[in-house]
Every structure is written in structure tokens, then in C-alpha cells.
Design brief:
Elements (H helix, E strand, L loop, with lengths): L4 E6 L4 E4 L4 E6 L4 E4 L5 E5 L4 E6 L3 E6 L4 E5 L6 E6 L4 E5 L5 E7 L4 E3 L4 E2 L10 E7 L4 E7 L4 E5 L8
Parallel strand pairs: 1-3, 2-4, 3-5, 4-6, 5-7, 6-8, 7-9, 8-10, 9-15, 10-16, 11-15, 12-16
Antiparallel strand pairs: 11-14, 13-14
């Protein structure tokens, strides 16, 4: 049976959440978040840990870390929104080859790399002190935002996969 929402919190430990058919809210101060096979909306927050989301089937994802890496591998719902943020960590998204997404990527001192051909819009690619890109993959229906101050942003092409046990 599906649950509505699972909420897990920790101050100084890692959290592993697997195979939840419902929304997940996971927060830790100084630990890693590992969310595997979640089929509802996801909110993941940590101050000094890494966030790994894999095998997800979510329509809404918000993953934020102050000093850790953030990764998402899962499906991308045509009406979905996916927001990854880190102050000083790298951001990685794995999209299937058939994905359709409008992407807004921003890093102040990191690099942006994509396995997908990047088709830029009229206001895209404008950079001042930072690197800011807006581009579309496929039909552009999903909305992806990835922001980091000093980390790199990587968009990989590939099938969603689960985290190793």
C-alpha cells in the first residue's frame, strides 16, 4: 500500500530511504541522504552531506545541500519540476535519451557539461560573473533547475538506475 508522506530527520547521521510509494521529506544536518526507488514527490535537505536520489519516479523534486554533492537519476514527468541546489557541491542529473526538459543551470565558479546537444534560446547563455544557461532538450516539458555557487553541473544521458546496496 502507498503511504501519503514519509518524513525522516537526523542531526548527525546518514539517512537511507528505499522503495517508498509516497512522498518523502528527508532532512539531516551532517549526514548523507540516499533516496532509492521513491515514487512520490521528494524534498531532501542537508547542510554538510551528499544527496543521492536514484531510481525515482517523482513529479516534484527539491534537493538542497550547503556543502555536498547532489545527484538525481530517475524519470522526468512531462509536468514535473526538478530543483537541485548546492552552495559548494557538484550537481549531476541523469536523463534518459528520450527526455524532454527545459533546463536552467547556474554556477558562479564551476563548469557546465551536458551529454545532450544544447539548443539555446534567445536569452540563453548570457554570462556576467557567473555561468548561466537556459536550454531545451527534446520537447522541453519537464522543468529542471540546477544552481551551485562553486560546484560543477553535469547532465548525463543514460537510464535511471538504483543506488548500490
Amino acid at each position: 500500500d502507498a503511504v501519503r508522506t514519509v518524513t525522516v530527520e537526523s542531526v548527525s547521521g546518514s539517512l537511507d530511504v528505499s522503495r517508498v510509494a509516497g512522498d518523502v521529506r528527508a532532512e539531516t544536518v551532517s549526514g548523507q541522504l540516499r533516496l532509492n526507488g521513491v515514487t512520490g514527490d521528494i524534498v531532501g535537505e542537508t547542510v554538510s552531506g551528499r544527496i543521492d536520489i536514484a531510481g525515482a519516479r517523482s513529479k516534484s523534486v527539491r534537493a538542497e545541500s550547503v556543502s555536498g554533492q547532489v545527484g538525481y537519476s530517475g524519470t522526468f514527468d512531462p509536468a514535473g519540476t526538478y530543483n537541485l541546489t548546492s552552495h559548494s557541491g557538484a550537481l549531476t542529473l541523469r536523463l534518459p535519451a528520450s527526455a524532454g526538459a527545459t533546463n536552467r543551470l547556474e554556477t558562479f565558479s564551476g563548469s557546465v557539461d551536458s551529454d545532450f546537444p544544447v539548443t539555446m534560446g534567445a536569452n540563453a547563455g548570457r554570462a556576467s560573473h557567473d555561468t548561466r544557461f537556459e536550454f531545451t532538450i527534446g520537447n522541453g516539458r519537464s522543468r529542471i533547475t540546477a544552481e551551485t555557487f562553486s560546484g560543477n553541473i553535469r547532465i548525463q544521458r543514460g537510464m535511471a538506475r538504483d543506488l548500490p546496496e
